[in-house]
């Protein structure tokens, strides 16, 4: 990709007559759109009849766009297989957990593991890559669209066969599986792999191992489909390849992006949930380390379908989103969608142009984004996001565990975003990292809500601690094996010896009126909690009220040059936030975390650097304005005027660029 900041939109020229395409290009130039994404839903346009593929329409559109300086991300059209591929073929369709067979007419209605689908998908992908791969203006590829957004695991017969093969490859023998899953319970013992069911609807709950492993199997199979498409494209094109994912689709993003070239995500967070938007930026920045991410879809005003809609963005918020994403490591900020769809199920969705060709309520905000993009582009291109010193581990495998074992409808993503908000609101520059990520350069590591701590993760974290890092573990971390069973020898497995504790018992704190205290702050405790007996560790947080009064819920233990901290329960409410903030700040100080500001809540500082020069991008996200204190004199990155050290103000949805030299 050319080195620039991209400002784009999803475009569907196949839905409109020739004259409207010309009109669209004129408006794109006015709005500052320099890249479009297209083709992901156009299979029936490209191949109306089986075997009759014609790419000329998209070739011509790409050339016309390129003549006007608008580049293209080309997509594979596999989320919407045409009717000739599905009609009278129920065996090819996605089957849900209740055994219902999906029908044609929406998207993601086919089983992506079906061999006929895979064959036809490979053919259309290859033909597109041949015709378009070397066209000037094609700068990237997107595979499919939002894998597993509308469906989760498929339960068809094809998947059943693949499931049995996958289990045999994973476990080797049926005896190993039976032992790992503990199948003697409820007479679930299996004699051969072919007997193991898919976790379809049952009278009560399935074995936890069965349910979680089926999700992981599904994760792997959709990633294999992505790998297959990427391999085909690479025969004909050198342009980098991505997929537009997010954190609530039924995929393992770490595995999905393993063999792709850069990461991109879709987000429709409302202004009131801006922390979720930032969460995505901080995660996708680290899915492909060293590669800029793309915001592939966000609404210029509001998200909507025939069934629902979100709140519209206030004026100015779109600009704040865009500047924040560029500052946090984004290369592109793109809208869904360019021109409002006049048919289908997403007719009410926000767009840049209306179906009748007039600017929408979001149009002027899109133009504001373009002004900001031009203003910050040279600074963004000449700097890189500063290495964070605080890391939080994110895991889609953990999300599968929580789907199997949600307790009182706990949602992993919601738990993580709330925990993340506590770190964000305290002014720390932070990374969300995957389970297999390097811990190099971090000083403080948080591992919340990770039911299984793998051996490889534990070994990396041990080294991190022994070399001087502070590792805060929990809550709801370490209590399950990789097979989603409970440990035999200790409540939290191998963690306990390293942490110098013994888990006395675990139970749900909610409803027990339990109160914990840490450094003089008391707060109610919640969730399924672990109560500790110190062995080598010191008790730093104890229970003051409830059924375990006097016992420990926070311990710390020095190991090597660093420290391991166990957090056995989640403090909640206003006092809980205060206790967590106290814990975060206390251990950040112990770890000597320097990338920290006193920025007010609702405003962020995104630090960037080049050759030792520090640049702050300060953005107000909540529309209330904000403040931050400069610890040294700076220079305004836009006006060039000096800014004396001390507090500065940021207006509602405004941003400031501050350079610090020497």
From TrEMBL:
Chemical reaction(s) catalysed? Hydrolysis of terminal non-reducing beta-D-galactose residues in beta-D-galactosides
Native source species: Litchfieldia salsa
- Which domain of life does the protein's organism represent? Bacteria
Which keywords describe this protein according to UniProt?
Glycosidase, Hydrolase, Metal-binding, Zinc
- Tell me which Pfam families the record gives: Glyco_hydro_42, Glyco_hydro_42M
Family membership, please give it: Belongs to the glycosyl hydrolase 42 family.
Please report the name of this protein according to its UniProt entry.
Beta-galactosidase
GO annotation, cellular component aspect: beta-galactosidase complex
């Amino acid at each position: 990709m050319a080195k620039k900041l991209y400002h784009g939109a999803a475009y569907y020229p196949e839905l409109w007559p020739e004259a409207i395409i010309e009109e669209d290009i004129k408006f794109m130039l006015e709005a500052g759109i320099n890249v479009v994404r297209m083709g992901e839903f156009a299979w029936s346009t490209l191949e109306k009849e089986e075997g009759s593929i014609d790419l000329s329409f998209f070739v011509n559109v790409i050339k016309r766009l390129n003549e006007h300086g608008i580049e293209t991300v080309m997509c594979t059209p596999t989320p919407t297989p045409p009717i000739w591929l599905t009609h009278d073929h129920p065996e090819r369709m996605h089957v849900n957990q209740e055994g219902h067979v999906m029908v044609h007419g929406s998207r993601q209605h086919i089983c992506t593991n079906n061999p006929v689908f895979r064959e036809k998908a490979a053919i259309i992908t290859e033909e597109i890559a041949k015709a378009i791969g070397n066209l000037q203006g094609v700068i990237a590829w997107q595979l499919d669209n939002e894998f597993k957004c509308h469906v989760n695991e498929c339960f068809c017969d094809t998947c059943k066969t693949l499931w049995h093969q996958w289990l045999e490859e994973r476990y080797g023998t049926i005896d190993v599986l039976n032992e790992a899953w503990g199948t003697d319970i409820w007479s679930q013992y299996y004699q051969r792999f072919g007997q193991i069911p898919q976790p379809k609807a049952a009278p009560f709950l399935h074995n936890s191992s069965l349910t979680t492993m089926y999700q992981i199997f599904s994760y792997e199979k959709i990633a294999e489909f992505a790998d297959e498409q990427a391999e085909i494209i690479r025969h004909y094109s050198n342009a980098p390849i991505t997929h537009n994912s997010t954190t609530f689709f039924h995929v393992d993003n770490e595995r999905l992006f393993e063999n792709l070239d850069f990461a991109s995500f879709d987000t429709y967070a409302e202004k009131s949930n801006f922390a979720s938007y930032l969460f995505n930026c901080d995660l996708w920045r680290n899915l492909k380390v060293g590669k800029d991410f793309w915001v592939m879809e966000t609404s210029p005003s509001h998200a909507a379908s025939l069934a629902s809609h979100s709140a519209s963005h206030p004026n100015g918020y779109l600009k704040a989103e865009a500047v924040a994403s560029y500052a946090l490591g984004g290369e592109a900020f793109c809208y869904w969608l360019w021109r409002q769809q006049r048919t289908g199920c997403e007719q009410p969705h926000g767009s840049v142009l209306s179906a009748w060709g007039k600017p929408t309520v979001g149009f002027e905000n899109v133009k504001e984004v373009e002004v900001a993009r031009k203003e910050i582009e040279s600074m963004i291109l000449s700097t890189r996001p500063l290495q964070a010193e605080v890391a939080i581990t994110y895991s889609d495998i953990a999300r599968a565990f929580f789907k199997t074992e949600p307790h009182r409808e706990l949602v992993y993503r919601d738990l993580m975003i709330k925990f993340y908000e506590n770190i964000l609101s305290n002014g720390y520059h932070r990374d969300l990292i995957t389970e297999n990520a390097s811990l190099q350069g971090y000083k403080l590591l948080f591992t919340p809500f990770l039911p299984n701590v793998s051996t490889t993760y534990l070994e990396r974290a041990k080294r991190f601690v022994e070399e001087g890092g502070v590792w805060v573990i929990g809550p709801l971390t370490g209590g399950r094996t990789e097979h989603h069973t409970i440990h035999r020898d200790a409540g939290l497995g191998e963690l306990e010896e390293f942490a110098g504790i013994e888990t006395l018992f675990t139970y749900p704190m909610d409803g027990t009126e339990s109160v914990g205290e840490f450094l003089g702050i008391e707060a109610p405790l919640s969730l399924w909690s672990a109560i500790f007996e110190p062995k080598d560790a010191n008790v730093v947080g104890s229970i003051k009220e409830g059924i375990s009064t006097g016992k420990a819920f926070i311990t710390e233990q020095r190991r090597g040059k660093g420290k391991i901290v166990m957090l056995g329960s989640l403090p909640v409410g206003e006092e809980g936030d205060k206790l967590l903030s106290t814990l975060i700040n206390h251990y950040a100080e112990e770890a000597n975390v320097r990338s920290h500001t006193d920025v007010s809540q609702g405003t962020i500082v995104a630090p960037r650097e080049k050759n030792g020069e520090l640049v702050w991008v300060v953005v107000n996200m909540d529309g209330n304005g904000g403040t931050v204190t400069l610890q040294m004199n700076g220079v305004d990155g836009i006006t060039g005027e000096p800014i004396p050290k001390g507090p500065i103000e940021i207006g509602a949805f405004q941003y400031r660029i501050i350079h610090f030299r020497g």
